[in-house]
Amino acid sequence: MHDRIIKKDKLKRILTDPRTLFWVWMIIAVTGMTRYGHGRENNYLIFKQVFWHVINQLPLFSFYPAEYFDVNHYGPTFSLVIAPFAVLPTWVGMLLWLVALTLLLYFAIRRNQFTQYQQIFIYWFCAHEVLNGVQMQQFNIAIAAIILLSYYFIETEKDFWAAFAIMLGTFVKLYGIVGVAFFFFSRHKGKFILSLLFWAAIMFVAPMIISSPEYIIGQYHEWYDSLVSKNVDNMFSQGTNISLLGLVRKISGCATYSDLWLIIPGLIAFALPYLRLDQYKNQGFRQTILASTLMFVVLFSTGSENSGYITPVIGVVIWYTAAPWERSKWDIALMVYVFIFCTMAHSDFMPRFIREEWIRPYGLKALPVVIVWFKLCYEICTKDYRKQNC
């Protein structure tokens, strides 16, 4: 009995050791290379060619069937992000790309003011979502990191760098703009606004260094048109619109209404907690706003896809762990529901007929996160986030 307790304690120490967690995530990053070959590295090829297309001043949002299938939807600034990897042989660049993405998110979590318990929970609970992201070589992993870093920099009064992270994410994939949700927590709002303007100007002109002003300005116009077109294509796609918007549209089968009927109430629900000025001083409250932001950006986007759920699932864990009160058995059950029917929804863990006949066609991967977000909205508008006395 005593030996069993010792072994159990030793195993616990190993599983919660930051070095263990680091290497688990690095192994996950490297396993993404199993997708290399036979066209499965397609997303990385799209990313890589963004750099070369900018260098050669070719249209960024056209089809290039001789190079890859599908089409690019990332902004011109992405050419500078991918540049260090694009100049390398494809397999080397892809390997370093996957490691860099995973490292960025790992340290964004590590650097934030989360407790050790929160960090361990995030690393283990979200490991499979990281795997989903690296297998598709997706920049969504970096988007999650960018939002977390935006929050971290504002919390630590480094508004200049918070603005950098926000504008980088915005000019690459738009999603980064949600970092402005933390504006009200800034202690230097004037500096923050000026920094946003500064970095917006830098991000706008930066890709002109490797091309030309006329070409880049033209590509920004093309980017807008491609995103509008993509939004229409996403409406009933099984691969995208895995969101609250897609859930309602795919279940209803209706194409005639505007998503604004859902987006506007969602924005109101998202904004209402900001009226609770007396709660701003409580870290649990601010972290719950962070959790809401991480979920909102995916739940209200028609471009949401399976490999992008690393962002809202991190939000789910923060929601669960940030509360200064003891979580109920219902909350625990809800976390189990998220893990099985969201995190594992598109994996072989889920029976094929459920995955292919229900989850994919109706975007049901989003449903557990939707339920958590609704509960979060209720809690953050009604609960006191002051630390409870023991």
Structure report:
- There is one protein chain.
- The protein is built from 18 helices and no strands.
- The chain is an all-alpha fold and 390 residues long.
- Helix 3 crosses helix 4.
- The mean pLDDT is 93.
- The two termini are 32 Å apart.
- It is globular.
- The chain folds into 2 domains: 207 residues, no CATH class; 156 residues, no CATH class.
- 66% of the residues lie in helices and 0% in strands.
Helix content: 55-70%
Q: Give the beta-strand count.
A: 0
Supply Rg: 21 Å
Instruction: Give the domain tally.
Output: 2
Per DSSP, what share of the residues sits in E-state strands of 2 or more residues? Answer: under 5%
Q: First CA to last CA: what distance?
A: 32 Å
- Topology order in helix (H) and strand (E) letters: HHHHHHHHHHHHHHHHHH
Oligomer: single chain
Q: What best-fitting shape do the alpha-carbon axes yield?
A: globular
Provide the residue-averaged pLDDT.
Answer: 93
* Tally of separate helices: 18
Catalogue the unreliable spans. none
Structural class: mainly alpha
The largest sheet, given as strand count, sense and whether it forms a barrel, is:
none
Question: What can be said about this structure in brief?
Answer:
The chain is mainly α.
Features:
390 residues, globular
SSE layout and pairings?
Blueprint: H1 2-16, H2 18-31, H3 42-55, H4 78-86, H5 90-111, H6 116-125, H7 127-135, H8 140-155, H9 159-173, H10 189-205, H11 213-234, H12 244-252, H13 260-271, H14 283-299, H15 310-322, H16 329-343, H17 352-362, H18 367-382
